[in-house]
Amino acid sequence: MGATAHSGIGPVDPIFQGPCPWSTLRRSGPLNECPATAKPHIPPIIRPLDPAQAHDLREWQRMRTALWTDQTEADWRAWLARGGDAAVLVAARAPRPGLCGFIEVGERAFAEGCETSPVGSIEGWWVDPDSRRQGVGSELMRAAEDWCRRRGLTELASDAKIGNDGSIRAHGACGFREVHRLVLFRKGL
User: Fold this and answer.
1) In a 10 Å sphere around its CB, with 0-12 CB exposed, 13-18 middle and 19+ buried, how is residue 43 labelled?
2) Most exposed of 101, 116, 137, 188 (fewest Cβ within 10 Å)?
3) How many angstroms separate the CA atoms of 112 and 138, rounded?
4) Is the dihedral of CA 36, 38, 39, 43 positive or negative?
């Protein structure tokens, strides 16, 4: 099956395969397979987001809003406009309607703690609460890793808020290792 073009995101990879759930974190060593942390009863279907489908856009916006409450339409449109250096991969659980997760993966020139350039970067990762611990996050992460490998990238970066212990554990289960903690400051003038 060859790649297909979807409006707004450039070439899209064929259907992805694979299981892995999601501090600045860096994938140690080569991008090889993650151990599965949960066995789904019905494996999720992982595929690229189709921005031409209103249903896909609505579901992706719903999940993005759950992850980032301050997101706007301009934010998700900017992501879609990135083109070929980024992808949105989504998860569906047949026979249930709708999507239950997404992962946004892109290419960056630099990522804190990484040793190569460019690097793959997980920019967003969400699984609906009722679909967690069923292998959905694992499958999404594996698909993102495959996306990076196809581009010749050898490292994958991600981050999580310091207090997000669930995300930090999920990243660790996927083979990431913590490389840096950062506290941001701000002062109004």
Assistant:
1) middle
2) 188
3) 23
4) negative
Would strands 119-127 and 156-159 be described as parallel, antiparallel, or unpaired? parallel
Closest Cα partner for 155 from 105, 182, 119?
119
Question: Tell me, what's the pLDDT at 41?
Answer: 64
- Establish if 70 belongs to a structural domain: yes
- Dihedral angle over CA of 17, 22, 27, 28, nearest 10: -110
Domain contains 111: yes
Q: How far apart are CA 33 and CA 116, in angstroms?
A: 19
Count of domains forming the chain: 1
Match 């080569």 to its residue by tokens: 30
The answer to the question of residue 187 being in a domain is no
- What distance in Å separates the CA atoms of residue 45 and residue 90, rounded to the nearest whole number? 8
How big is the chain, counted in residues?
189
Residue 65: Cβ within 10 Å count? 14
Do 85 and 92 form a contact (C-beta atoms < 8 A)?
A: no
The predicted structure's pLDDT at residue 179 = 92
Report CA-CA distances (Å) from 34 to 3, 105, 158, 172: 25, 17, 15, 10
